[in-house]
Amino acid sequence: MTLVAVRTEGDSLVDGYRAVVGDGPIRILESLARQLRGHRIAMVNSTATGGGVAEILHRLVRLLNELGVPTTWEVMTGDTRFYGITKTIHNTLHGWPGALSEEDHAYYLAMNRRAAESLALDADLVLIHDPQPAGLAELRRQAAQRWVWRCHIDLSSANSAVWDFLAPRIAHYDAAVFSHVTFVPPMPVPAYLAPPSIDPLSDKNRELDESEVEELLAPFGLPTRRPLVTQVSRFDRIKDPIGVIDAFRLARRREEAHLVLAGGSADDDPEGAEVLAEVRAKVGKASDVTVLLLPPDAHLVINALQRRSTVVLQKSLREGFALTVSEALWKRRAVVASAVGGIPLQVIHERTGLLARSIEGCASQIIRLLRSPELRRRLGGEGREHVRDNFLHPREARDYLALFARLIDIAHGS
Ligand code: UDP
């Protein structure tokens, strides 16, 4: 169980964001931060690297500190058994098959009890991310504190037995936050909405010139003459890498292209190696597909890969939000993505990208984009503006600070 040290040196994030989103949104953020002066925030999740939540926390924690709201980040680590159980919780809450036994319940609670004894959770506001550490509120909460559960999962088709186990834990929070209104089931506490966001200044998303892109991708020997069709995702069945290969093979009957499946693993995801082996077996000796297993800090490589791609895919079968979609749209890429979870918030069909509901549909949208530079330019341009307006970190920070300010007001009876 660890406290993540967030790098604070370097240029001011606040100044950098001001240059991207303008003065107005930053002034609102600064004013909310002034209301929260003197209050400390603790963020808790279950991995320091890999996956969207860790990606967000690295920068959001730094931003909140820069704004003068002292914020720490605690990681609740587990063992293989715990991560197996929490992966089942994650998948079944997304409506995927699976079940928990009584022993699983007991083990989940025992691990939360262990974390409750060791994590530093004395802040005034505690923001718990996702189901893994959700049991902490009932174990550690003190009367003067405010606790918020931040759920990144689409609970609209959640397995009811698993939700029945989790909901009594959530009843100990003051509020829950979801990415999209359709994700929210009947809740024991008030629910608020705040979609996730990306950082336009991070290595993952900052501008790169063409020579930097070439240099970063040189070690991978990707073809330079054929257009790249790319999906960046953890090797997880929910991201449907096998379906991506099937869709690409259909598209390849009509158009020249090269598929890149790039991904790494997350500390709290035990299935990655198995899925990667399935993907490699499916690709076989095909020369028009590259599978890249990337280390957790390959942010610049992913940035370059997204920029170099003619089409970016996100063919998930279930999805919380898919930061990878915002990342691609921010880079003005043409995106084909499944109409699941939070993706339709980002991909407005025919305006900021193209939605697909099947392997055949995905293939035909890939073909359309490969054939039309004009369509790619139009969707990519609108996509960037849509992300600037809705899915950059200052907006997410504002949503959290506004909620915290409200919870503190309620506590003080105003
Ligand atoms: N990512 C990464 N390396 C990888 C795969 C993904 O850095 O090998 C990043 C990706 O760029 C994005 C985040 O991890 O920022 C994944 O977030 P998303 O919401 O797309 O999916 P999640 O993994 O949380 O389900």
Bound molecules: uridine-5'-diphosphate
Overall pLDDT: 95
Instruction: Summarize the biggest pleated sheet.
Output: 7 strands, mixed
List the strand order in the largest sheet: 1-3-2-4-5-6-7
Number of helices: 16
Q: State the fourth-level CATH superfamily of the largest domain.
A: Glycogen Phosphorylase B
Fraction in beta strands:
5-15%
Separation, N- and C-terminal Cα atoms: 37 Å
Counted up, domains total 2
What is the CATH C level class of the largest domain, in words?
A: Alpha Beta
- What CATH calls the topology of the largest domain is Rossmann fold
SSE string: EHHEHEHHEHEHEEHEHEHEHEHEHEHHH
Based on helices, strands and strand pairing, what is the structural class?
alpha/beta
General description of the model:
It is a single chain. This protein has 414 residues and is of the alpha/beta class. It has two domains: 2-197 and 392-411, Rossmann fold (3-Layer(aba) Sandwich), CATH 3.40.50.2000; 210-390, Rossmann fold. It has 16 helices and 13 strands. The strands form two sheets. Strands 1-3-2-4-5-6-7 form a seven-stranded mixed sheet, covered by helices on one side. Helix 12 (323-330) links the parallel strand 11 and strand 12 (334-338). The longest helix is centred in the last third of the chain and has 19 residues, at 393-411. The protein is globular, with a radius of gyration of 21 Å. The model has no long low-confidence stretch (mean pLDDT 95). The site of uridine-5'-diphosphate has 18 residues, from helix 3 and helix 12. Uridine-5'-diphosphate binds at residues 51-52, 55, 204, 232-234, 263-264, 294, 298, 302, 320-324, 327.
